[in-house]
Amino acid sequence: MTATPETNEHRFIIQPGTLYLCPTPLGNLGDITLRTIEVLQQADLIAAEDTRRSLKLLNHLNIRKSLVSYHEHNRNEKEGPLLEALRQGKAIALITDAGMPGISDPGTHLVVACLRENIPFEVLPGPSAVLLALAASGLSTERFTFEGFLPREKKKQREHLESIRQFPHTLIFYEAPHRILSTLKQLAETLGNRQAALGRELTKRHEAWYRGTLEEIRQQLDTAPGDPKGEMVLAVAGLDPLERRQEDAQAYDHLTIQEQVTRLMATGLSKKEAIKETARLRQIPKREVYSQAIDLEEP
């Protein structure tokens, strides 16, 4: 396959000494953009997470270019030579195995280095498993947090989930197939059995979606024939506002009004803000809280 715009008038011309972050297809090679193809055709050098996988894409596009590996385990070794090539005027295309370079990917370190060295770079739009999963999840898309891969150590995983448990917006996770069942179990135990959507093999022939509560999705995978396969993206609903109010109220129900206002001020709220929040949590008039907290001093 050779993809070239019909005229040179609209052809994207890359600039020397510039790093280009080029998103690549998640699975369907037809999803690559013309602009990414043009950059790959013109680049002096292509830095790839896995040169073997990237070579298949480049062969499909009939592109023959110098290819170097750049991944998490060799980034410290490769960063210097890549920056030097950029300083010498080389145009470099950075690609990952699938999706957007720099998202759960060492490409972010190269971007930081370019910023530090005042080397120009450009990010091209294109495929992103994060946004695809969010749009397909059926969950709220107004706000979301991308969590990437959870820590592998159970204690750290639990601690991290506790730190985000009260987030009211949709959470997006990446996960490997051999860990997905245990991760779903941990999510349900820590966050509660929330609504979620799990996508695997996105844009590929065997793309599949599992929807329901976290426990229902785990059961669907557990009873499916064979072991879970393919890269996975999981979208999980944020904490329901009503549930959050109930949790907030329970956290303070053993305190007096004065103690609650004092504790809220210790978190950084002003006395006025703490009184208002106490009234909201207890669902009582502000004047009732004010009458009992009037003698409290600002921290």
Structural summary, described in words:
This is Ribosomal RNA small subunit methyltransferase I. Catalyzes the 2'-O-methylation of the ribose of cytidine 1402 (C1402) in 16S rRNA. The chain is an alpha/beta fold. It has twelve helices and ten strands. The chain starts with 18 loop residues before the first strand and ends in a 6-residue tail after the last helix.
Question: What's this entry about, in short?
Answer:
With 299 residues, the protein is of the alpha/beta class. Helix content is 42%, strand content 15%. The longest helix is centred in the first third of the chain and has 13 residues, at 75-87.
